[in-house]
Write a structure and sequence with these properties.
With 253 residues, this protein is mainly alpha-helical. The protein has a domain of 101 residues: Serine Threonine Protein Phosphatase 5, Tetratricopeptide repeat (Alpha Horseshoe). Helices cover 70% and strands 0% of the residues. It contains 14 helices and no strands. The two termini are 21 Å apart.
Amino acid sequence: MKLSRNFAKLVCCSLVLAMAACVHPTVPGRTPEAAAAINVQLALEYMRLDKLAIAREFIERALGQDPHNADVQATAGLVYERLDDLPKAERAFASAAHLGKKDPSIQNMYAGFLCRTHKVSEGEKLFRKVAHDPTYLTPEVALVNAGVCVHSAGDNIGAERYFREALQIHPNMPEALLQLGSLLLERDEAAESVLMVERYLAANPPSADIYLLGVRAERKLGDETAASGYAQRLQAQFPNTDQARQLQLGLTR
């Protein structure tokens, strides 16, 4: 399930990594809150690099420095979830949601965690709340997340409703088109799925996922020429992806 990443899109270059030894709260002139913010960035960067033990060190340092900060707690939730320490992740995300009760981005993150831990009803309800929050600038993101959430529990009708509602707000939203196209193919509506692929590619940069969906949908329709075209583009533009490997192994039906 792909959930909103706005909070996690922090840019940490080698200069920031080099600051790791300088973020202790005793550094003159740096407040604990400022040190915690740097440690949050470092935790996210090391998590991106899949160095989870180091990410945990930095986020736990941040928790000691600024435990009442919703962003710190939310980042802790992400790190602990990656470490598969779900009890700690649950406590951190719940704390973040409490501290950031007026921040829809934090609520969106907590809703995602609820869905990933099979609390679908709670997650869907919170996603709907976020989508209707007038301060949240991208309600279509929360709607797609809600659709992915209920789809994971087998509610295809509800999922389609959320994806189409998101597309009413943002008609060319790539994730909504991809999710809806995949759902339509699951229901053996391959022709409609192809329309979603074409609509996606007409308005957005291509992705490995959308090319693979095109291959699968066209093969379902029996159009091997069109399927081959998508396959060639996938292999040429995204040769080292899981999607290309699926294609090479014949796992696209």
